[in-house]
Amino acid sequence: MSSHDAVDRDREALFREYVMPELQLLHAMAMRMTRDPHDAEDLVQDTLLRAHRAIDRFDGRYPRAWLLTILRNTQINRVRKKSPVLAFDPEATFGRLPAAEGRDTAAEQALDRIADPAVVDALARLSERHRAVVTLVDVEGLSYKEAAEMLDVPIGTVMSRLHRARARLRGILEKSGHVRKGLG
């Protein structure tokens, strides 16, 4: 057995350990970003290829955030190739990704899984930046660090946006009578 074979086996083991458990999340996020099953599959395949190439440089910390960053950057590069005008602002690019079925953004698409229409309506009234952070942290269950890497902003920005978004949501729900003041 050559040392090259051993390196390949180690790479495959790392890939199975860090990447494969996140495959379902990658598919879900790719679908939300592309709104097309074929494009989502292509995006996941490109992401997996990039992750495989870089797995020996990965330090093992925060595999979900690492993979979501690769996914996000891969999608931004794909969008740039299709529409160079969007390349100037990656955060705006994330917010401008195509949506389907009358929804404006990928973040709004995730809201479809929330059962309470009052909460969905309240979330829809938030700015895109605030809606995106609530979607990633409160709906998708990402950590602050993972959301920060996904949105390419500092963790403090995620925390402050999330705090403001939750306060705004609480205010909207209080005004509509869905939550009593002082609760939440």
List the helices and strands and how they pair.
Blueprint: H1 3-18, H2 23-34, H3 37-54, H4 63-82, H5 90-95, H6 106-110, H7 117-124, H8 128-139, H9 144-151, H10 155-175
Helix pairs in contact: 2-3, 2-4, 3-4, 4-9, 8-10, 9-10
Find the structural class using helix and strand composition.
Answer: mainly alpha
Distance between the termini: 61 Å
Strand residue percentage: under 5%
The backbone outline, from C-alpha atoms, is elongated
Helix content: 55-70%
Strand count, sense and barrel status of the largest sheet are: none
Ranges where pLDDT stays below 50 over 5 or more residues in a row are: 83-115
Question: What oligomeric state do these chains adopt?
Answer: single chain
CATH hierarchy, class of the largest domain? Mainly Alpha
The Rg value, from CA coordinates, equals 18 Å
How many domains is the backbone divided into? 2
Count the DSSP helices. Answer: 10
Q: From the 3D structure, determine the CATH topology of the largest domain.
A: Rna Polymerase Sigma Factor, Chain: A
